Predict the 3D structure of the following.
Amino acid sequence: MTDTVDTATDQAALAINGLEMSYVVRGTPREVLRGVTFSVQPGEAYGLVGESGCGKSTTAYAALRYLPGNGLITEGSIVADGLTLTDMSSAELREFRARRASMVYQDPVQAMNPVTKVGDQVAEAFTILGQSKDQALASALEALERVKIAAPESVMDRYPYQLSGGMLQRVVIAMALACDPTLLVLDEPTTGLDATVEAEVLDLVRDLRRELNSAVLLIAHNLGVIRTMCDRVGVMYAGRIVEEGTVTDVFDNPSHPYTKGLLNSIPRHGIRKGDRELFAIPGNLPQIGDALPTCVYVERCPVATEICSTEVPPVVERTVGGHWTRCHHPDRIDQVPDPEEVSIDHTVGTEEIIGVRGVSKTFRQRGNDVPALVSIEMGFAEGETLGLVGESGSGKSTLAKTMTGVHPPDEGGAITLRGREMKGKATERVEESIRAIQMVFQNPDSALNRAWTVRRILMRAVTKLTGLKGAEAEERAIEIATSMRLSERHLDMRPRQLSGGLKQRVAIARAFAGDPEVVVCDEPTSALDVSVQAAILNLLAQLQREERTSYLFISHDIGVVRYLADRIAVMYVGRIMELGTTEQLFDGPVHPYTEALLSAVPSVDGTASNRIPLEGDIPSPANPPPGCVFHTRCQYVIEGTCDVVVPEEVDVGGGHRILCHLPVDQLPVPVELTAKT
Amino acid sequence: MSDDSTPEPVTQDAASGAESTPELPEVAGATRKQIQREQLSVLFSTPGFIVGMGILLFWVLAALFPTLITGTDPIISVRGADGNTFPREPPGGEAWFGTDQIGRDVFARVIHGAGSILTIAPIATAIAIAAGTLTGLTMGYFLGWVDEFLSRIVESILSIPVILMAILVVFTFGETTPVIIGTIALLFTAPVARTVRAATIAEAQLDYVTSAKMRGEKSFFIIVQEILPNVTGVIVVELTVRLGYAVFTLATLAFLGVSGRDPQLPDWGVDVAQNWERIGADVWWPTIFPALAIASLVIAVNLVADSIDRALKS
């Protein structure tokens, strides 16, 4: 982003002009793009952001005219590199996609053929360009070297399932670059990856862009990713771009009420739940197919007037640098209310409610013992949030499932409720223990029974967890639903009729049905859009204030954990590497792993100048490294100690526990990206 | 949220002004009724569905009220005013589909033949679906040794050719209609169980099942109340597929002479079996018309099944 790119070419790599598109759903065409116009210059990176359903992925696919069978372009043109895609025959389109443009999809696992060796698959991209088999294999090796994959020769001979997600995404990028594309479309390329891997892949794309001078169209819902990767950004809403400009202009000086709302809804600048609530954009995205002869955002806009619901707003220039907004009232942007800073009282109790005492969990896999959790030690006070972070595969979800009694822990460990030991399995636990620990899952689509109505889901939980029956249970179910801001109308609906945020509210309501002591939240907002995430986080914080509930809050989003958590535990290969209060963790000193984890997060507030690279993959718990499990990836590794001796836990002050050999004064201090303003 | 907590949820954050109080966010997507209506309209504009449904309704009508369609008796040979029979009369004139070896009206036999096949096939299919669903749910939910044990049984049934198995069973237990129904039901239970098992395994991995386990629900409740309503889609598809196969299998058994019925009675499979040798002598009509009837019924069932499947996915 900091590089100056050559945009002074008269021919854009991609120019989309007034594109209108519909999907035919159940026989009716429904409008999804309502006049999208933007262009990407050669060598430029252009980002599209917006909430799910706003049409950003459709635009990405349309850029290569790569549309599903029910997609219908009704108006407008797509011009790439001087060629009009909208007029091409299918043979010409194939040729165009083979030689001039490439696309990288969200899920690298699905983008690869599982039964073909990686080398052959990459080589295929070159044989299409007319190379001989041997030539193509040589080019494939070169391509893999270019994407800086570790041990490219051995990767050539492996099958996709033998590679990690991050490596696969590198392979997919290598294939995409085979034809030296003038246009590279990336559709949420890092969404399924861990923050540490995401940072690596983003670094790679940034380096390659410098090398190739190809235009990049990047689709992402993560504003931080767009900020660190792109030169210019378009903010999409309901099939229209509502604001466009350089990333600095748009993110630091938003000019459309929607952009402003979006930015206010993420926890930025290190704010905490005690500082203020997050801003949630009221209402919902219009449905695809809704007629919108108006400003698309009018229904949710705090500064809308009469004209906004009768006329399509004009494009208003904000700066000469090409920063514009599509708004009737660009002068009223300052009237969009800023979230107020008020201090909200969050007191944490002193009594320990749930204790996790030396809990280990070993799975048996094909005759081998796989220690997924190794002597976990932690406790929850009343009304406290314990944040749990770590890469995927570190054992976060296993810990959640062990606490809730889905898997019983190994002999020797215990989970205690107010000092009394609980049974390992949920079916063997007494009613009181079942009621005390409930869980909110990551994906509400999976967590709610599709065949049940909301009323039945809540009634069942109430009956089972409180013993209330009939009318009393129904009364209680309605009461919880109301406190989750669900109306009675919603009670008779089935989950698929509800939006993602509403579904998650139902799931939270179910967890709270029996007045629990601890609610385990396993990435409860990662499947949601940021504006909805804000509302859910506010709800969780409010419930905690009122009910004195404790949370085990698992998340990969450091900003979110920082906002909600009182204390944070960092997990790696089934072990707690560090545990301390949120202040202790962000002020340091911290464990070297924590330092790397914190620095990997792409932030919407700015770019990290000194990111600590975390190379390679997280080791498998089946085969943990000797000594300190982190020594294979640690930049401070002490030869002869870290790879031999298992470190002891050190208290660096105030109950801040770190599992590391480094003397306290040599422990790193995390890079502060998101300083409080 | 104990009873003494404040029931009014909003008040506190009104002061902060930050929380925008998502005012009962609107419902996502079209309502259930709307979706159903649109799916129905897609269904009724699919040519395959209309044609298939037309054929199917015709055969159902023939099975229920054959005499509405033809006044001719299917068993007694047609006789002229002089009392003569007209064997091997080609199609046309009085007998639309011609007459067979002993002068019976082929059209009347085809129409009256619908009854037996349209009774036996649906009953056998229904039993197979019920038994297969129960077995499949049990296997897919418990897995482990229960699944191992039942899987071996299912596999052993699947490994024996259907017709061979049917002939063996019918010869052992006697050639009666209940035995035929039972045989086909048993044979079709295996593939239904296998399909439902796969769907159940996928469902059982979803978090709502985990959540039910965390509430301490009994396995029976989870299987019947939580999982079953979510696998009805595959069961409906399996039902239509198996119905087509059942028609086919019944006709084949009748052709092989194990119909469980008096060969005098009209039956498509039996009629094909009794007449096919004469195709060589250019008497094709007593064979081709019942054969076409079998084909049309199987195709109709498949057309309807395909269209429903596609409408549900549109």
In short: The two ends of chain B are 42 Å apart (CA to CA).
